[in-house]
Amino acid sequence: MKFATSAILLICTMIVFWPIWNGRFYLTGDMRDVTIPIESFFRQEQLAGRLPAWMPDAAFGFPIIAAAQIGFFYPPSLIVRFLPIFIYVPLLVVLHTALAAIGTYSFARRLGQSQSASILTAACVTLGAFVWQHITHLNIYLALAWLPWQLLAVKKITQKPMAAPREALPSGAIGVMGLVIGIPFLIGQLQIPALMAGFSLLYYLILASQKISLRTTLTHIMLISLLGAAVASAQVLPTLELVKYSSRGADGDFDIIRANQHSYPIYHLPTLVFPRFFGQDNTYWGKRLEIE
Description:
There is one protein chain. The chain has 292 residues and is mostly helical. 58% of the residues lie in helices and 0% in strands. It has helices spanning 3-16, 18-21, 29-47, 75-80, 85-110, 115-126, 129-133, 138-144, 147-159, 171-182, 191-208, 214-243, 256-259. Helix 1 crosses helix 5 (85-110), helix 5 (85-110) packs across helix 6 and helix 5 (85-110) packs parallel to helix 9. It is globular.
């Protein structure tokens, strides 16, 4: 990627986040009520050299690592928690926005798009409503930055001459795919990383099966999935244990009606053509919260 392109994407990111450079931040919704309190506890325990498995100040105590709200083991978070929280949380937001923009641009270029079209694609995806509105859901916002890199990895691997049907995918390719699939789960939110992983692996299935046998392709997918699951296990296993005791467990009262309360209603179809049909922010009059 040329320096000029990097500069354009960086400048766009800097402009969008002008409130941060002015000493302000997006403290609304879950960012204020969930993420910041949990991250404050994580930082406190990490600096003390303790594993924050139990948060005593949440109700009568809570196994916070298993909560799947914001992940303790996410590598970038582990690195920056030595900084003050009012510095490192905005830093994570800005860096992941830039990461998403660069990844989207690179993927568009890999698809054969022009430089201008790729820059526009990066801006539309990174600064689009779905991504931007989820800035209050930091776990979703950070996870989405990995999607273009997953797709880019798939495209690069499948564009190279692939092994004969009975030969294995190079271990380096399996490692890269497993990491970019598994790391987003460590951010804490599991649904979005699961959807991303499913989409990326389906993309791999479509592209790879055009060059090698379906059986070999499925073997590759299994190996990538196993490595991704191993990487994600630090977050997924505690969460699966906690789910059994929650309202969403087998003995809970979570039913199909509650599960569908944020589903996309058919009367919202006009938004496919007119995105602001139901208004925006304070003028929104559609179903539930706009970001949901």
